[in-house]
Amino acid sequence: MSFPAGVFYVFAALAVVSALGMVLNLRNTVAGAMCLVVTMISLAGIYVVLEAHFVAVLQIMVYAGAILVLFLFVVMLLNLRSDAFSPPRSRIAKLAGVALGVWALVGFLGLLPGALPPIAQISPTFGSYRDVGLSLYRTYVVAFEVTSFLLLAAIVGAVVLAKRRLS
Amino acid sequence: MPFDVILKVLFIVLVGVAAFAPVITWVERKQSAVMQDRIGANRADIAGITILGLLHPLADVLKLIGKEDFVPAGAHRFLHALSPIIAALPAILAFAVIPYGATYQFPGFAPTTLVGADLDWGLLYIFAIGSLATYGSVLAGWASNNNWAMLGSLRASAQMISYEVTMGLAVVGVFMVFQTLRLTDMVVAQDTTFRIFGFLETFGIVQTLPGWLSWLRLPFWGVLVQPLGFVMFLTCIMAENKRAPFDLPEGESEIVAGYFLEYSGMRFGLFYMSEFIEVVVIGALLATIFFGGWSIPYLSQETIIGSLEPTMGAGLATALCMVAHVATFLLKVVVLIWLQMQIRWTLPRFRYDQVMDLCWKIVLPLSLVNIFVTGAVLLLVETAK
Fold this sequence. Notes:
The complex is a heterodimer of chains A (167) and B (385). Chain A has 167 residues and is mainly α. Chain A has 2 domains: 1-82, Up-down Bundle (Four Helix Bundle (Hemerythrin (Met), subunit A)); 128-167. In chain A, 75% of the residues lie in helices and 0% in strands. Chain A is globular. The termini of chain A are far apart. Chain B contains 15 helices and 4 strands. Chain B has helices at residues 2-35, 56-66, 77-93, 122-143, 147-170, 172-178, 183-190, 198-202, 211-214, 222-225, 227-241, 252-255, 265-290, 301-346, 352-384, and strands spanning 103-104, 112-113, 193-195, 217-219. The radius of gyration of chain B is 23 Å and the shape is globular.
């Protein structure tokens, strides 16, 4: 097993374990959120193995460093300590969960070797901020601008909703 | 070569963390004493020898180790123990990408660069690592099961997230000018000079500058080409460090001691040390981005080595140049640490709404204007050439 593959398996295992930790940590929301932080950081590690350095940095900066801090902020502000809310115990929800899991597993097995396209050669500058920036502002400029417009709409919507509650 | 990597790591840890940080706790005490017209820390002694109070950091450590390691009732024990470590680690890790010397070619050796890791995205690495430091203060307050500590955590998380955004935008102008995010390249780009009135020639206002005007040169430092960026970045990064005037998460007159209220002994010591390690990191980062890092103004690396080489040979000339560069870098860091101390003891604490207004209503729009103006100027220079 090569070194990058070893690093990949370490981070992949960490991502899976911490994701399970987040889902199963029903009693303690803050611990669950911290598990999600570990998942995000392990994903960033996997991106580094895949040579996507810029995406890895953004993963840590945006998801682990900003969005999840906001999650924690909200959780702490509501101060939901243990027993504040119980997990859904209805049988239908459980069955639906199992069915969804099986469906995802079948879909994943279909992707295993054989179904994968051959691996393309990447350029030496692949994943650098220059490459990402150029393709973002040249090839995908329309999609980029539409996304920013969507985010702006979401921000304005959030402010409008929050202000209505205040007054 | 793993040997030189070990040497570099040792240098960074010994100088940045082990030597600088304890000494600046002493500098902080002396600085506050000077500002408040007191004598300052001078009592700790070994057999009557005080060395100007420099033994105080040692006495501090002994005191902290001797204290009871207290965990409050109802605290989340694991996160309570983990958060001082999360607070201290990012500050130490940030040193990895800060260059403290240039690339040197000793005869008979491969060229070496004096930096821990020469990353293409070095500046982004610092932002990414720095953004994780928020968890240290946020979790500390929550895990302590104390309402004052919780309030401190809420203040810390809101303040740090807000200033992270503006901190990133404040330096965009700098990497537009230097065209790189790699910190070593950024310093190399600053190891030169520019003509103060050179723009007259570029834009064709005069055909050629008269001789004496073209001799007026300034070092091509970030602070001179991006003065507004420097002021905004300094503001944001001091707010990230949560020291006065931005020490609202601690706010001892309002919320006792904020997020580290329930910490004692070495756990508190770790929070305390991480604050001072951050001061050193900030000094080093400001020196690298805005004050030319290791570069000596008006004496570029080629000039130094080129003028020394005929008399003393390539090896000795390179070694002397290296020593001069590292010394210059450390001198700049010391001056910038002093600047932070001066600000910390000059300004009183802001009100919380003032902190948020400063971030979102003043610094953020100004940084956007700065990016726009920098872009426009760069475009004009490109077309005029």
